[in-house]
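Bumping my old thread because nobody answered last time. Still need a sequence for this structure:
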């Protein structure tokens, strides 16, 4: 089974930046970053396929950048101009089913059972 491990979370003030990394035992064709606040539904943030196409949630578009480094099996998320509402646990994931589209991966509700998940990394943005 694929193994995923996130890192790079931390605490930052509003307007700051963080870069998350996810080392995978193998890269999937459709991967992404998702986030969740306790008590709320997990939501898609940024997704990418093996051709390099990407899509983003409207709330992060223009601020976050997802990328895939095939040389070291690492999925990354560059997060700029962070806002308090970005505070969440961030998870990387690989889809075990071919999605209809990248946009579909961002459609709620996220079907948790369709993905293999990392353990998550906490991002806290203070005002």
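Sorry it took so long. Here it is:
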């Amino acid at each position: 089974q694929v193994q995923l491990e996130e890192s790079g979370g931390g605490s930052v003030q509003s307007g700051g930046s963080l870069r998350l990394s996810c080392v995978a035992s193998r890269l999937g064709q459709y991967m992404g970053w998702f986030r969740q606040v306790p008590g709320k539904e997990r939501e898609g943030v940024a997704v990418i396929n093996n051709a390099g196409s990407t899509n983003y949630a409207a709330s992060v578009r223009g601020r976050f950048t997802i990328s895939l480094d095939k040389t070291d099996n690492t999925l990354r998320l560059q997060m700029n101009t962070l806002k308090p509402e970005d505070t969440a646990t961030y998870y990387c994931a690989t889809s075990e089913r071919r999605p209809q589209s990248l946009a579909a991966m961002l459609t709620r509700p996220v079907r948790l059972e369709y993905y293999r998940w990392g353990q998550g990394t906490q991002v806290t943005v203070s005002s």
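The chain has a mean pLDDT of 97. Let me know if any region looks off to you.
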